[in-house]
Write a structure and sequence with these properties.
The chain is α/β, with parallel strands linked by helices and about 190 residues long. The protein has a single domain (about 5-190), classed as Rossmann fold, CATH 3.40.50. The protein is about 30% helix and about 25% strand. It contains 6 helices and 11 strands. The protein has helices spanning about 5-20, 25-40, 40-45, 60-70, 95-100, 145-150; strands at about 50, 75-80, 85-90, 100, 105-110, 125, 130, 135-140, 155-160, 180-185, 190. The strands form 3 sheets. A 7-stranded mixed β-sheet has the order 3-2-1-6-9-10-11. Strand 1, helix 4 (about 60-70) and strand 2 form a beta-alpha-beta unit. The longest helix has 16 residues, at about 5-20. It starts with a helix and ends with a strand.
Length: about 190
């Protein structure tokens, strides 16, 4: 990794982490974002969707997960495999029964939930710290999503964020995944 790019990424991470979203703002913006996603063709046509369990500074998409379950979509979340240091998509059928406390303080599917092959996923919802209008994303620095998305030959890769997380440019390297679209509470960017 170029030291200039690494330094630029870390500076942008610090800047984005310094910004905060109030709980009331997060709730209203998350509801708007979920409504926007429901109107997209990629959502309506998807039979299998990979979600993320949001951290407290990310959009709350649990209502979207519940909607996918009620619509009969194959609904998957990520489960961390510590021995191999990567996340795998895992199907759930019930939010209360199938989710447990996982790594990094994130809820994840329980051990009884089955793994879903990446090529079965029609829509992959991706969190991040920052995004730009070229489909580039800044994650938290571990590369977990870049490795996951590299294995996604099929399916729309869609960044999910608040409007303030859109920046002019996200510094990237060759291994950084590029998204197909980004959805915010007020915008939809397709690449």
């Amino acid at each position: 990794m170029s030291s200039n790019i690494a330094a630029s990424k870390e500076a942008l991470r610090r800047e984005m982490r310094a910004r905060s979203v109030m709980p009331a703002e997060r709730g209203a913006a998350s509801a708007m974002l979920c409504e926007s996603i429901l109107s997209l063709d990629c959502w309506q046509q998807a039979r299998a969707v990979l979600f993320f369990a949001p951290l407290s500074d990310e959009p709350d998409i649990f209502q979207l997960i519940q909607r996918a379950l009620s619509e009969g979509k194959l609904t998957a979340l990520l489960r961390f495999k510590p021995s191999e240091q990567f996340f795998e998509p895992v199907a759930i059928e019930n939010l209360e029964r199938d989710l447990v406390a996982g790594h990094f303080g994130v809820r994840e599917p329980a051990a009884h939930c089955p793994v879903v092959p990446m090529n079965r996923l029609d829509l992959i919802l991706v969190p991040g710290l920052a995004f730009d209008s070229y489909g580039r994303r800044l994650g938290r620095g571990k590369g977990f999503y870049d490795r996951l998305l590299a294995a996604a030959a099929h399916g729309t890769k869609c960044g999910i964020c608040f409007d303030w997380q859109l920046v002019e440019t996200v510094p990237t390297e060759a291994h950084d995944a590029v998204l197909d679209c980004i959805v915010t509470p007020t915008r939809w960017l397709k690449f």
